[in-house]
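Record format v2
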Amino acid sequence: MRVRHVQAPVPIAEPPARRESAPAAGAVRPPRISARDVSVFYGETQALDHVSLEVAANRVTALIGPSGCGKSTFLRTLNRMNDIVPRMRVTGRVLLDGADVYARGVDVVQLRRRVGMVFQRSNPFPKSIFENVAYGIRINRLAGSRSNLHDRVEQSLRRAALWGEVRDRLHHSALELSGGQQQRLCIARALAVEPEIVLMDEPASALDPIATQRIEELIYDLKREYTIVIVTHNMQQAARVSDATAFFWLGRLVEFGATEVLFTNPRERLTNDYVTGRFG
Amino acid sequence: MNAAMLGLTAACATVAVGLLFFILGYLVYQGASSLNVAFFTRLPAPVGEAGGGMVNAIIGSAKLLTLAALVGIPVGFLAGVYIAEYSSRRTAILLRYTGDLLNGVPSIVIGILAYSLVVLPMGHFSTIAGGIALGIMMVPITVRGTEEFLRAVPPSLREASLALGARRWVTIARVVVPAASRGIFTTMALGLARVAGETAPLLFTALNNRYWSHGWTEPTASLPVMIYTYATSPYDDWIRQAWAAALVLVAVVLAANVGGRLLLSPRRTAAR
């Protein structure tokens, strides 16, 4: 067991000023995340091919494209969740506030605290509602006292718009909740460790329309405090919730820009065919 | 023809299930009359005297099983965690197969091993030697059960924990193992129930004792060895007591099995 140590982000030699891809519309501040020529291989299979894109602060960036286009792979490179896949290899660089997250010496635990994640299928722990949210606070030792822990759990549940529905049954099993509630619980759990960026991998794809709508409203609210990257294969959803959209196709980034432009007046023919439903 | 086949298979199924009830019934028939307070509270009576009990064998078995748990469960559990959570696929296959082979080693051979490694160096039979022999038998059972129940934990729970900034061992200790804990406990209970009835590895490790076994370094009585000794004796009273001991042993083993299954039953899925 290694001693837990707080590690400052490793600075990179190159100044982050160089912009290789166009910044998302509305981005006035430097991008939070800047991917440069990112390629990902699973063994011999190449899943991503030289993807460069920038994620603006306090915006929702949607990644769209047909199944197997690499959008989830790209999302998982941002918090290095791909590291747990055997024989995975990344080239290029992923800069978080200018520092390469794949640099030697980067502590993935610190990275994942800053870059939280919500998964496609809600995956609450088989514990109580309270313990699900408290888990990340406990393991990262964020709460100094029992009452502080309770406050943080409540605050996280409020942010995920779940507090009112569960306040009277915090110590019931999380598995008693409905699918939509479970997914909001997973969002609360992710928010509890105070990430700066939240990655969402098709967070509503397993939910009914009403639960989906609640998640979408939540995403809209959350962008005031967080930077959000969301993978979806639901184009209407991307159009509704996102500020910028990236269209992936066969592991390549075809087009990236402001959502309203990409959906109404795309540069690329391929994008146009996809967003108008001609394939996918 | 179809009716004949149906009849034959159904008859055999009845026999298979009926065996358990036959054994139970026969044990009760033969042993219940010798089950009294003295059986659970008194030492064996001197040869030739009627009465007495097996309290030393009951306590002896409990001590042996405690040692077996202390030896077998930590090693088996941690090895199971390694196989399920850390090892590569090829290593896992190799380790699992090796564990299965160890599980298949006849218990008398485990007894010889404990005899030569513990009894001979110590110079005498002891509770420790018997406990170690049973503990070795616990290892592969615990490894297999731990591994299977850990593997049944959905990968999405591991991902959820890792994504919250948990290190791998924290994820294993606080999410994966707790999620599998009921299954793992059941495995351990079944493993103990299984070795509780082992006689061969105890014959020349713990030996037997007609008196109290003090501490851990003296030979000790145990229920299975008592059954063997009493059942093969020429005294009617001893033979009846052997039946009573068998009834007690089977009752304990059955209780552990049924308890383990109840713990695992899907109705009890309330999260902690």
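The two ends of chain B are 54 Å apart (CA to CA).
Chain B touches chain A through 24 residues (CB under 8 Å).
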